[in-house]
Write a structure and sequence with these properties.
The complex is a heterodimer of chains A (about 475) and B (about 250).
Chain A (H helix, E strand, L loop, with lengths): L4 H11 L3 H6 L9 E2 L6 H10 L4 H16 L21 E2 L13 H9 L2 H8 L2 E6 L2 E7 L1 H5 L3 E4 H7 L1 H7 L10 H9 L4 E5 L9 E6 L6 E2 L2 E6 L4 E9 L7 E3 L2 E6 L4 E8 L5 E11 L4 E8 L4 E4 L2 E4 L5 E10 L4 E10 L5 E10 L4 E10 L7 E10 L5 E10 L5 E10 L2 H8 L5 H17 L4 H16 L5
Parallel strand pairs in A: 3-7, 6-9, 7-10, 8-11, 9-12, 10-13, 11-14, 12-14, 13-15, 14-16, 14-17, 15-18, 16-19, 17-19, 18-20, 19-21, 20-22, 21-23, 22-24
Antiparallel strand pairs in A: 1-2, 3-4, 5-6
Helix pairs in contact in A: 1-13, 3-4, 4-10, 8-9, 11-12, 12-13
Chain B lengths: L2 E11 L2 E12 L3 E6 L5 H9 L5 E9 L2 E2 L5 H6 L2 E4 L6 E5 H16 L8 H14 L10 E2 L5 H15 L3 E5 L7 H18 L2 E6 L12 E6 L2 E6 L1 H10 L1 H6 L3
Parallel strand pairs in B: 3-10, 3-11, 6-9, 9-10
Antiparallel strand pairs in B: 1-2, 1-4, 4-5, 7-8, 11-12
Classes of the chains: A alpha/beta (about 475), B alpha/beta (about 250).
The structure holds adenosine-5'-diphosphate and magnesium ion.
The site of adenosine-5'-diphosphate (ADP) has 13 residues of chain B, from strand 2 and helix 1.
């Protein structure tokens, strides 16, 4: 179906506006206490480790990881990585000397940044714990007293290494080993900040924990490391948000997230990624899920120049469940190469993948999925559904699903659709009085609803508005 | 008093002419029935009058209260009080009937009067609830995606329910009776009559069968064939048509 000329004109008009960036793209004028020189070498690694006063084993791990990073070639699949200039990036920027537990102690300029992003407000309203990372370091961290009393740990990953060395060493790098891929190696070499969560047995964290990641400096590399351990019978929902001002030069965000969901536990990990369009976002996310436990990745990718991210779930115990639900939005100069990986390694495990993408104004979405059922994992059930919406004719969407099923008892359902905004739907809504741009944004929001409605209400509304903004070019209602 | 005038209207799609000179004038309070065989151009007439971008008007005019509207996009026509109940209402995933109709109601009100009060979600819930009662609809449908998974009958009821909420000045009802069982037909007809009495709107009632005319008495009946109105009369014409079939009228042009 052809897109009417008027729709195209409206979309062109909208795409020239940088509404979102106006809201999130402000720069904060603040001097870091330390900024590593451009480029990457052993000296920089040593300096990071020295400044953090780390144990020897971590420095050794970092050095080994750096070697692997240098050795591994850039992946030839996925998006175009050839334009990243690794020699011009700053790999470590320390914004202040110590992490704070009260907002009033955070340097004024940095606090203002998070005020503008609505973080302290969200903390008061609906979060059980809050972290805020500025450049390479967490500058703020808090957790409700009651949860601390129950033994819940929610700290910056750096703090956790110092305070809980045993449990840290037991799990760090076990889900995503240093050797996993080039960017996991890079992260392991220069990691800084990120969240560390431990939820004790049978403990439920009823409100979400959230960390917000902000890149502020130009040519910045942000490499946080997140580790979540949900002990038997526990549950937790973690949310991450992120944004950055736009620069004409590129920045790099390469995070590693490792999650361990023990027997009967449940973890939800929600991402609202809204990097500016000069950020390369190359993230490794993986969860080990044991007997009768549940993992849900809810992954929304709105920003960045290129995102390559395929949250993975290893179903390692019987009756384990995994879900990966994602929404990707790509507009001009954006490529969202996202997907999902599920490994059924045990019997009676089940999984669900729902991937939705919206492409507009030359934006490009790719879905890359892997579903594997290992021999001996009996009676597994998997459902994969990928839906792409093309808002105009210039946009692009590709699907690369891979299935490796080694078990006859496996039930696998797969469904993929690509659709355009239909003229009939537009006419229907317009015949009731909605303007064309209102109708388009309604249809796009409707398409995304299945994913959006699973977000906490505040974020669902935010994301609805974001899509509306993108479609109508209107600021606020 | 509102008047919709369709003057010597010719329209085509994909280079095929479908409407071949239609003349029609509908005033507030009047009910015009248009009857015709499948493929005679009834839906096309509705779509063209409502402003479907798929059709191109090659000749003629459409006026609402003297103002030419044939170049306006569909939403501007709706803002002026025009409404179309679709023969095959389209499904829209994830857009709830309630949300979209509230936005439509507010947008129309704003277009008609800049100072119009914004209807809040809770106020609107009452409006839509009353309209759904009028059509004897399950309230749950308001929270579901527009027409998605609705039965044929539910879709038709939902169309008239939307008419009840939006209160148009002139309503085009395209085969609102098709696919309805007799009870549903009675409910829908009753609702249309009620709205007509309440709002004094003008109605263009498109139908394939004369069955619905047993419940809604038209002031005028027109027979359309091959993109032209070939005969007009009063309600007796519909009865004649029922008796003798379309062929008779097609063979002896008015
Ligand atoms: N989009 C279209 N492209 C080509 N032909 C069309 C299109 N829409 C309608 N027509 C043709 O126009 C004629 C009238 O159709 P329609 O208005 O739907 O008739 P009715 O509603 O009276 O059954 C039919 O011959 C139909 O095939
Ligand atoms: Mg028809």
């Amino acid at each position: 179906m052809k897109i009417p000329k008027r729709t195209r004109k409206i979309l062109e008009k909208i795409s020239n506006q940088k509404n979102l960036l106006r809201k999130l793209g402000f720069r904060t004028d603040t001097k870091p206490v330390y900024k590593s020189p451009q480029g990457l070498n052993t000296n920089i690694i040593e300096e990071i480790s020295r400044q953090k006063a780390e144990p020897e084993w971590m420095l050794t791990l970092r050095k080994k990881a750096l070697e692997i990073f240098f050795k591994k070639p850039l992946p030839l699949w996925g998006g175009d990585l050839s334009k990243i200039n690794f020699d011009t990036l700053h790999y470590y920027i320390k914004p202040q000397d110590k992490i704070k537990t009260k907002w009033e102690n955070v340097p004024k300029k940095i606090k203002e940044t998070f005020d503008k992003l609505g973080i302290p407000q969200a903390e008061r309203k609906f979060l059980a714990g809050t972290g805020a990372q500025f450049e390479s370091e967490m500058i703020y961290h808090s957790l409700q007293k009651e949860l601390k009393g129950k033994g819940v740990i929610f700290e910056s990953t750096d703090t956790a290494l110092k305070k809980y060395p045993k449990i840290f060493a037991e799990y760090f790098g076990k889900v995503v080993p240093v050797t996993d891929n080039k960017f996991a190696a890079l992260n392991s070499a220069v990691w800084s900040g990120g969240s560390f969560i431990y939820v004790p047995k049978n403990t439920h964290v009823n409100l979400p924990l959230q960390t917000y990641f902000r890149i502020n400096a130009e040519r910045m590399g942000q490499f946080e490391r997140t580790l979540i351990i949900a002990d038997e019978g526990s549950s937790v929902h973690y949310i991450e948000g992120c944004s950055a001002p736009i620069y004409s030069t590129d920045s790099l965000h390469a995070a590693v997230v490792e999650i361990i969901v023990k027997k009967n536990a449940r973890v939800q990990y929600t991402t609202i990624q809204n990097w500016s369009s000069n950020v390369y976002n190359l993230v490794t996310k993986r969860a080990f899920v044991y007997e009768n436990a549940e993992m849900l990745w809810l992954d929304c990718n709105i920003g960045s120049r290129l995102t390559m991210k395929y949250p993975a779930i290893f179903l390692l115990g019987e009756n384990a469940k995994g879900e990966i639900q994602s929404l990707a939005f790509a507009k001009e100069n954006q490529h969202q190469d996202t997907g999902a990986k599920i490994f059924h390694s045990s019997s009676n495990t089940s999984s669900k993948i729902v991937a939705k993408s919206i492409s507009k104004n030359n934006g490009r979405n790719s879905y890359r999925g892997l579903l594997k059922v290992s021999k001996g994992a009996k009676n597994t059930v998997s459902h994969v559904s990928c839906n792409a919406l093309l808002v105009d004719e210039n946009s692009r969407s590709d699907t690369y699903p891979t299935m490796k099923v080694e078990e006859e008892s496996a039930t696998v359902a797969h469904e993929a659709t690509v659709s355009k905004i239909s003229e009939e739907q537009l006419f229907y809504l317009m015949s009731r009085g909605l303007s064309e741009d209102e109708a388009v944004s309604m249809i796009v929001n409707g398409f995304a609803t299945q994913i959006i409605k699973q977000l906490p209400m505040e974020y669902a509304l935010e994301l609805n508005r974001l899509i509306e903004l993108e479609m109508t070019g209107r600021h606020e209602r | 008093m509102d008047t919709l005038e369709i003057i010597a209207l010719r329209a085509e799609t994909n280079k095929t002419e479908i409407l071949k000179g239609i003349n029609l004038k509908i005033r507030s309070g009047e009910i015009h029935a248009i009857m015709g065989k499948n493929g005679s151009g009834k839906s096309t007439l509705c779509n063209v009058v409502m402003g479907h971008p798929k059709y191109k008007i090659t000749e003629g005019k459409i006026k609402l209260n003297g103002k030419k509207i044939e170049k306006l996009p569909a939403n501007k026509r709706a803002n002026l009080g025009l409404f179309l109940a679709f023969q095959n209402p389209t499904e829209i995933q994830g857009v709830t009937l309630n949300n979209f109709l509230r936005l439509a109601k507010n947008t129309n009100a704003k277009a008609q009067n800049k100072k119009a009060k914004h209807i809040s979600p809770s106020e609107f819930l009452q409006t839509i609830s009353q309209s759904m009662d009028l059509l004897e609809m399950d309230k749950k449908l308001a929270g579901r995606s527009v027409n998605e998974g609705f039965s044929g009958g539910e879709k038709k009821r939902a169309e008239i329910m939307q008419m009840a909420v939006l209160k148009p000045r002139i309503a085009l009802l395209d085969e609102i009776d098709s696919g309805l069982d007799i009870d549903a037909l009675k409910t829908v007809a009753k609702a249309i009559k009620r709205l007509h009495k309440q709002t004094k709107c003008g109605i263009l009632l498109i139908t394939h069968y004369q069955r619905i005319l047993n419940y809604i008495t038209p002031d005028f009946v027109h027979i359309i064939s091959n993109g032209k109105i070939i005969k007009s009369g009063d309600k007796k014409l519909a009865q004649k048509l029922e008796k003798h079939g379309y062929e008779k009228f097609v063979k002896e042009p008015a």
